[in-house]
Q: What sequence folds into this?
């Protein structure tokens, strides 16, 4: 879910914008961008991923003017590139949506929060738990991260959207409509998980070195 028109109080828009800005600044500061600048292959993959996600975001269901249902792919990008580049792609896609008039610009912060920051954070926590506690087994990594982790990230992002509207809506009708939209979460979760899991499985088979969170030596070479 992302917002297309504002039904939120100004204080909620400002709060979400500040949270998004803080997380983006912190992740950019912690990430080693020098390694990225030295790796032209990864730069090309990042650009290709940004264009692909931007195009896929055009496939959206929008029964009301202010809320859109679409696949996000931030959780998958977090597995492929880690959180900072994934958030950079998400920010670029959200800026593109603003530039082409799909989204009002005051909603940039809240959309980055629910479509970028929250899924990336959930996926990061899932990956760390899998990396630390589960066996070094390729199917375990694929299903725990690529399917379950993506589904969980989609669920948390959707519930966060419901919570944001509940706390900060400026239109009482919006709360009723977002509750109705929440009923579609059981449909969004398997859709995003299936597509992301299938893409991840292809990459793990043919190009495992493209997946930044996957250690081929641990999961393949030692078996």
A:
């Amino acid at each position: 879910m992302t917002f297309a028109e504002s039904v939120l109080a100004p204080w909620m828009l400002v709060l979400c914008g500040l949270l998004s800005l803080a997380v983006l600044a912190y992740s950019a500061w912690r990430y080693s961008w020098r390694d990225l600048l030295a790796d032209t292959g990864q730069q090309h993959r990042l650009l290709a991923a940004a264009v692909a996600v931007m195009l896929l975001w055009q496939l959206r269901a929008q029964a009301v003017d202010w809320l859109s249902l679409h696949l996000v792919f931030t959780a998958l990008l977090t597995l492929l590139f880690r959180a900072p580049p994934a958030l950079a792609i998400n920010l670029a896609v959200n800026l593109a949506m603003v530039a082409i008039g799909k989204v009002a610009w005051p909603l940039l912060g809240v959309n980055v929060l629910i479509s970028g920051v929250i899924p990336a954070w959930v996926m990061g926590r899932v990956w760390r738990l899998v990396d630390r506690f589960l066996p070094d087994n390729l199917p375990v990594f694929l299903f725990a991260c690529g399917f379950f982790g993506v589904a969980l990230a989609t669920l948390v992002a959707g519930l966060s959207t419901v919570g944001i509207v509940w706390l900060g809506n400026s239109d009482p009708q919006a709360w009723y409509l977002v509750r109705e939209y929440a009923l579609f979460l059981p449909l969004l979760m398997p859709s995003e998980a299936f597509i992301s899991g299938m893409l991840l499985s292809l990459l793990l088979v043919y190009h495992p070195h493209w997946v930044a969170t996957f250690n081929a030596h641990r999961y393949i070479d030692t078996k």
Summary: The two ends are 40 Å apart (CA to CA). Residues 69 and 215 are 34 Å apart (CA to CA). The longest strand covers residues 61-64.
